Protein backbone atom coordinates (compact mmCIF):
# COMPACT_ATOMS: atom_id res chain seq x y z
CA UNK A 1 0.00 0.00 0.00
CA UNK A 2 1.35 3.42 -1.00
CA UNK A 3 0.35 6.70 0.65
CA UNK A 4 1.15 10.00 -1.02
CA UNK A 5 0.09 13.62 -1.21
CA UNK A 6 -2.06 14.53 -4.21
CA UNK A 7 -1.89 16.98 -7.12
CA UNK A 8 -4.09 18.17 -9.99
CA UNK A 9 -3.54 14.98 -12.00
CA UNK A 10 -5.44 13.04 -9.34
CA UNK A 11 -8.85 14.68 -9.91
CA UNK A 12 -10.35 11.79 -11.96
CA UNK A 13 -9.22 9.21 -9.40
CA UNK A 14 -10.54 11.33 -6.51
CA UNK A 15 -13.99 11.48 -8.10
CA UNK A 16 -14.09 7.76 -8.90
CA UNK A 17 -12.94 6.86 -5.39
CA UNK A 18 -15.43 9.27 -3.81
CA UNK A 19 -18.36 7.70 -5.67
CA UNK A 20 -17.40 4.15 -4.74
CA UNK A 21 -16.50 4.99 -1.16
CA UNK A 22 -19.78 6.80 -0.47
CA UNK A 23 -22.08 4.48 -2.43
CA UNK A 24 -23.44 3.05 0.85
CA UNK A 25 -23.20 6.25 2.89
CA UNK A 26 -26.01 7.37 5.21
CA UNK A 27 -26.48 10.54 3.14
CA UNK A 28 -26.56 10.20 -0.69
CA UNK A 29 -23.38 11.58 -2.29
CA UNK A 30 -23.67 10.67 -5.97
CA UNK A 31 -22.07 13.91 -7.19
CA UNK A 32 -20.89 14.31 -10.75
CA UNK A 33 -17.28 15.43 -11.07
CA UNK A 34 -18.12 19.11 -11.56
CA UNK A 35 -20.34 19.18 -8.46
CA UNK A 36 -17.71 17.45 -6.35
CA UNK A 37 -14.98 19.81 -7.49
CA UNK A 38 -17.15 22.86 -6.74
CA UNK A 39 -17.71 21.47 -3.24
CA UNK A 40 -13.95 21.02 -2.84
CA UNK A 41 -13.32 24.61 -3.93
CA UNK A 42 -15.99 25.99 -1.57
CA UNK A 43 -14.44 24.23 1.38
CA UNK A 44 -10.91 25.26 0.45
CA UNK A 45 -9.40 21.92 -0.56
CA UNK A 46 -5.63 21.99 -0.92
CA UNK A 47 -4.48 18.94 -2.87
CA UNK A 48 -0.91 19.40 -1.66
CA UNK A 49 -2.29 18.80 1.86
CA UNK A 50 -4.55 15.92 0.77
CA UNK A 51 -3.58 12.26 0.63
CA UNK A 52 -4.54 9.11 -1.22
CA UNK A 53 -3.97 5.43 -0.51
CA UNK A 54 -3.00 3.35 -3.55
CA UNK A 55 -3.12 -0.42 -3.90
CA UNK A 56 -1.16 -1.65 -6.91
CA UNK A 57 -1.34 1.85 -8.37
CA UNK A 58 -5.11 2.27 -7.92
CA UNK A 59 -6.58 4.77 -5.48
CA UNK A 60 -8.56 2.91 -2.84
CA UNK A 61 -8.96 5.69 -0.25
CA UNK A 62 -8.77 9.48 -0.24
CA UNK A 63 -8.62 12.23 2.38
CA UNK A 64 -9.32 15.68 0.91
CA UNK A 65 -7.96 18.35 3.25
CA UNK A 66 -8.47 22.12 3.31
CA UNK A 67 -6.10 24.62 4.92
CA UNK A 68 -7.05 28.18 5.83
CA UNK A 69 -7.47 30.60 8.71
CA UNK A 70 -10.52 29.61 10.70
CA UNK A 71 -11.49 31.36 13.93
CA UNK A 72 -8.22 33.31 13.53
CA UNK A 73 -6.15 30.12 13.72
CA UNK A 74 -4.40 28.41 10.78
CA UNK A 75 -6.40 25.18 10.64
CA UNK A 76 -6.84 22.08 8.52
CA UNK A 77 -10.25 20.56 7.79
CA UNK A 78 -11.26 17.15 6.52
CA UNK A 79 -13.41 17.99 3.48
CA UNK A 80 -14.13 14.28 3.07
CA UNK A 81 -12.47 10.95 3.75
CA UNK A 82 -13.60 7.90 1.79
CA UNK A 83 -12.40 4.30 1.75
CA UNK A 84 -13.57 1.71 -0.78
CA UNK A 85 -15.74 -1.01 0.81
CA UNK A 86 -13.18 -3.61 -0.30
CA UNK A 87 -10.43 -1.93 1.74
CA UNK A 88 -12.20 -1.05 4.97
CA UNK A 89 -10.89 -2.40 8.25
CA UNK A 90 -7.26 -1.67 7.35
CA UNK A 91 -6.94 1.63 9.26
CA UNK A 92 -6.48 3.49 5.99
CA UNK A 93 -8.11 6.68 7.32
CA UNK A 94 -5.72 6.76 10.25
CA UNK A 95 -2.73 6.00 8.06
CA UNK A 96 -3.68 8.77 5.62
CA UNK A 97 -4.00 11.20 8.51
CA UNK A 98 -0.55 10.28 9.80
CA UNK A 99 0.84 10.79 6.27
CA UNK A 100 -0.43 14.36 6.13
CA UNK A 101 0.02 15.34 9.77
CA UNK A 102 3.74 16.10 9.54
CA UNK A 103 3.49 18.28 6.42
CA UNK A 104 0.62 20.22 8.01
CA UNK A 105 2.56 20.90 11.20
CA UNK A 106 5.56 22.04 9.19
CA UNK A 107 3.29 24.52 7.39
CA UNK A 108 2.32 26.03 10.72
CA UNK A 109 -1.14 24.44 10.92
CA UNK A 110 -2.13 24.36 14.59
CA UNK A 111 -5.20 22.13 14.57
CA UNK A 112 -7.28 19.74 12.50
CA UNK A 113 -11.08 19.75 12.39
CA UNK A 114 -13.51 17.25 10.97
CA UNK A 115 -17.16 16.26 11.10
CA UNK A 116 -18.41 12.70 11.45
CA UNK A 117 -21.95 11.35 11.54
CA UNK A 118 -22.93 10.74 15.16
CA UNK A 119 -24.18 7.21 14.49
CA UNK A 120 -20.86 6.17 12.90
CA UNK A 121 -19.50 4.96 16.22
CA UNK A 122 -16.63 3.06 14.62
CA UNK A 123 -15.28 6.22 13.01
CA UNK A 124 -15.83 8.27 16.18
CA UNK A 125 -13.82 5.77 18.24
CA UNK A 126 -11.08 5.65 15.61
CA UNK A 127 -10.75 9.43 15.68
CA UNK A 128 -10.72 9.43 19.48
CA UNK A 129 -7.88 6.90 19.47
CA UNK A 130 -5.94 9.31 17.24
CA UNK A 131 -6.45 12.09 19.78
CA UNK A 132 -9.52 13.92 18.45
CA UNK A 133 -12.01 15.27 20.96
CA UNK A 134 -15.64 16.15 20.35
CA UNK A 135 -16.10 19.89 20.18
CA UNK A 136 -19.88 19.98 19.74
CA UNK A 137 -22.85 18.27 18.11
CA UNK A 138 -24.27 19.69 14.89
CA UNK A 139 -27.82 19.03 13.71
CA UNK A 140 -29.01 19.03 10.11
CA UNK A 141 -32.38 19.41 8.40
CA UNK A 142 -34.02 19.24 5.01
CA UNK A 143 -36.74 21.74 4.12
CA UNK A 144 -39.01 20.90 1.15
CA UNK A 145 -38.87 23.58 -1.51
CA UNK A 146 -42.64 23.91 -1.66
CA UNK A 147 -43.23 24.08 2.09
CA UNK A 148 -43.09 27.87 2.44
CA UNK A 149 -43.57 29.25 -1.05
CA UNK A 150 -46.91 30.92 -0.26
CA UNK A 151 -45.33 32.73 2.70
CA UNK A 152 -44.62 36.46 2.33
CA UNK A 153 -42.86 38.97 4.56
CA UNK A 154 -44.64 40.54 7.54
CA UNK A 155 -46.04 44.04 7.23
CA UNK A 156 -43.36 46.67 6.88
CA UNK A 157 -40.64 44.21 5.86
CA UNK A 158 -39.19 43.93 2.36
CA UNK A 159 -37.19 40.92 1.14
CA UNK A 160 -34.83 41.61 -1.76
CA UNK A 161 -31.77 40.09 -3.33
CA UNK A 162 -28.44 41.84 -2.85
CA UNK A 163 -24.72 41.27 -2.82
CA UNK A 164 -21.53 42.15 -1.01
CA UNK A 165 -21.44 40.28 2.31
CA UNK A 166 -20.97 42.69 5.21
CA UNK A 167 -19.43 40.23 7.65
CA UNK A 168 -18.24 42.84 10.14
CA UNK A 169 -21.78 44.05 10.76
CA UNK A 170 -23.47 40.66 10.52
CA UNK A 171 -21.16 38.66 12.77
CA UNK A 172 -22.50 40.08 16.07
CA UNK A 173 -26.02 38.99 15.08
CA UNK A 174 -25.10 35.31 15.26
CA UNK A 175 -25.61 33.52 18.56
CA UNK A 176 -23.27 30.56 17.84
CA UNK A 177 -20.15 30.04 15.69
CA UNK A 178 -20.70 28.67 12.21
CA UNK A 179 -18.92 25.52 11.06
CA UNK A 180 -16.16 25.45 8.44
CA UNK A 181 -18.39 24.74 5.45
CA UNK A 182 -20.76 27.60 6.33
CA UNK A 183 -18.06 30.14 7.17
CA UNK A 184 -17.44 33.44 5.39
CA UNK A 185 -14.39 32.01 3.60
CA UNK A 186 -16.41 29.06 2.22
CA UNK A 187 -19.19 31.38 1.05
CA UNK A 188 -16.75 33.78 -0.60
CA UNK A 189 -15.09 30.86 -2.39
CA UNK A 190 -18.47 30.13 -4.01
CA UNK A 191 -19.39 33.75 -4.70
CA UNK A 192 -20.54 33.05 -8.27
CA UNK A 193 -23.03 30.42 -7.01
CA UNK A 194 -24.25 32.31 -3.95
CA UNK A 195 -27.51 34.25 -3.68
CA UNK A 196 -28.02 36.59 -0.75
CA UNK A 197 -31.42 37.88 0.32
CA UNK A 198 -31.90 40.72 2.77
CA UNK A 199 -34.80 41.65 4.99
CA UNK A 200 -35.23 45.42 5.29
CA UNK A 201 -37.46 47.42 7.62
CA UNK A 202 -37.46 51.07 8.77
CA UNK A 203 -34.57 51.73 6.42
CA UNK A 204 -32.29 49.11 7.98
CA UNK A 205 -31.16 45.57 7.24
CA UNK A 206 -32.72 43.29 9.85
CA UNK A 207 -31.78 39.87 8.54
CA UNK A 208 -30.29 37.89 5.67
CA UNK A 209 -30.28 34.45 4.11
CA UNK A 210 -27.48 32.96 2.02
CA UNK A 211 -28.38 30.13 -0.33
CA UNK A 212 -26.36 28.11 -2.85
CA UNK A 213 -29.04 26.62 -5.15
CA UNK A 214 -26.68 24.35 -7.11
CA UNK A 215 -25.62 22.68 -3.86
CA UNK A 216 -29.11 22.87 -2.28
CA UNK A 217 -27.44 24.48 0.75
CA UNK A 218 -28.54 27.23 3.12
CA UNK A 219 -25.21 28.13 4.79
CA UNK A 220 -26.56 31.01 6.87
CA UNK A 221 -29.88 32.52 7.90
CA UNK A 222 -29.69 35.19 10.59
CA UNK A 223 -32.18 37.70 11.97
CA UNK A 224 -31.01 40.71 13.89
CA UNK A 225 -31.74 40.64 17.64
CA UNK A 226 -34.87 42.63 18.38
CA UNK A 227 -36.54 41.47 15.15
CA UNK A 228 -36.80 37.77 15.97
CA UNK A 229 -40.10 35.94 16.40
CA UNK A 230 -41.83 38.38 14.04
CA UNK A 231 -41.90 36.26 10.89
CA UNK A 232 -38.72 37.69 9.38
CA UNK A 233 -36.83 34.40 9.51
CA UNK A 234 -39.78 32.53 8.03
CA UNK A 235 -39.97 35.01 5.15
CA UNK A 236 -36.24 34.66 4.47
CA UNK A 237 -36.47 30.86 4.55
CA UNK A 238 -39.43 31.03 2.17
CA UNK A 239 -37.38 33.12 -0.26
CA UNK A 240 -34.50 30.65 0.00
CA UNK A 241 -36.78 27.72 -0.84
CA UNK A 242 -38.09 29.61 -3.86
CA UNK A 243 -34.62 29.30 -5.38
CA UNK A 244 -35.06 25.52 -5.57
CA UNK A 245 -37.04 23.42 -8.07
CA UNK A 246 -40.39 22.28 -6.69
CA UNK A 247 -39.28 18.68 -6.20
CA UNK A 248 -36.03 19.53 -4.40
CA UNK A 249 -35.25 20.03 -0.72
CA UNK A 250 -33.08 22.71 0.84
CA UNK A 251 -30.41 21.41 3.19
CA UNK A 252 -29.66 23.23 6.40
CA UNK A 253 -26.38 21.77 7.59
CA UNK A 254 -24.56 22.08 10.92
CA UNK A 255 -26.77 23.92 13.39
CA UNK A 256 -25.16 23.97 16.82
CA UNK A 257 -27.08 21.55 19.08
CA UNK A 258 -27.12 24.17 21.85
CA UNK A 259 -28.94 26.68 19.61
CA UNK A 260 -32.39 25.62 20.74
CA UNK A 261 -34.37 28.48 19.11
CA UNK A 262 -32.71 27.76 15.74
CA UNK A 263 -33.37 24.04 16.05
CA UNK A 264 -37.02 24.67 16.90
CA UNK A 265 -37.35 27.09 13.97
CA UNK A 266 -36.02 24.65 11.34
CA UNK A 267 -37.85 21.69 12.90
CA UNK A 268 -41.13 23.52 12.16
CA UNK A 269 -40.47 23.26 8.45
CA UNK A 270 -38.12 20.30 8.12
CA UNK A 271 -39.68 17.26 6.50
CA UNK A 272 -36.86 14.93 7.52
CA UNK A 273 -33.90 15.51 9.76
CA UNK A 274 -30.54 14.54 8.30
CA UNK A 275 -28.14 12.60 10.55
CA UNK A 276 -26.58 14.64 13.33
CA UNK A 277 -22.82 15.12 13.22
CA UNK A 278 -19.99 15.56 15.68
CA UNK A 279 -17.49 18.31 15.12
CA UNK A 280 -14.16 16.93 16.33
CA UNK A 281 -10.83 18.65 16.81
CA UNK A 282 -7.21 17.66 17.25
CA UNK A 283 -4.91 20.37 18.59
CA UNK A 284 -1.38 20.06 17.18
CA UNK A 285 -0.06 22.32 19.93
CA UNK A 286 1.97 25.50 19.67
What does this structure look like?
This protein is α+β, with helices and mostly antiparallel strands and 286 residues long. The protein folds into two domains: 2-109, Aminopeptidase (3-Layer(aba) Sandwich), CATH 3.40.630; 141-276, Gcn5-related N-acetyltransferase (GNAT) (Aminopeptidase, 3-Layer(aba) Sandwich), CATH 3.40.630. It has helices at residues 11-21, 33-42, 92-106, 121-130, 167-170, 184-189, 232-241, 260-269, and strands at 2-5, 51-55, 58-70, 73-83, 111-117, 133-144, 158-162, 195-201, 204-212, 217-223, 249-256, 272-283. The strands form two sheets. The protein has an eight-stranded mixed β-sheet. A four-stranded antiparallel β-sheet has the order 7-8-9-10, covered by helices on one side. The two termini are 32 Å apart.
Short description:
27% of the residues lie in helices and 35% in strands.
Keywords:
286 residues; 8-stranded mixed β-sheet; alpha+beta; Aminopeptidase; 35% strand; 2 domains; elongated
Q: What is the helix tally?
A: 8
Which stretches are poorly predicted, pLDDT < 50 over at least 5 residues?
Answer: none
> How would you state the average pLDDT, rounded?
92
Count of beta strands: 12
CATH topology of the largest domain: Aminopeptidase
Strand content: 25-35%
Radius of gyration: 20 Å
What is the helix content? 25-40%
Strands of the largest sheet, in order across it? 1-2-3-4-5-12-6-11
Amino acid sequence: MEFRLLDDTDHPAIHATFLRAFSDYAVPADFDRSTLERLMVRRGTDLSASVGAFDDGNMVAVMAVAVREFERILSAYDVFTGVLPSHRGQRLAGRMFETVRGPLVRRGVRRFLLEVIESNTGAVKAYERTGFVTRRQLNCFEVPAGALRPVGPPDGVIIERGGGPDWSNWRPWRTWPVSWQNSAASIEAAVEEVRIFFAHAVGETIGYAIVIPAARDLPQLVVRPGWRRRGVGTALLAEATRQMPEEETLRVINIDATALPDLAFFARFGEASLPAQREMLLDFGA
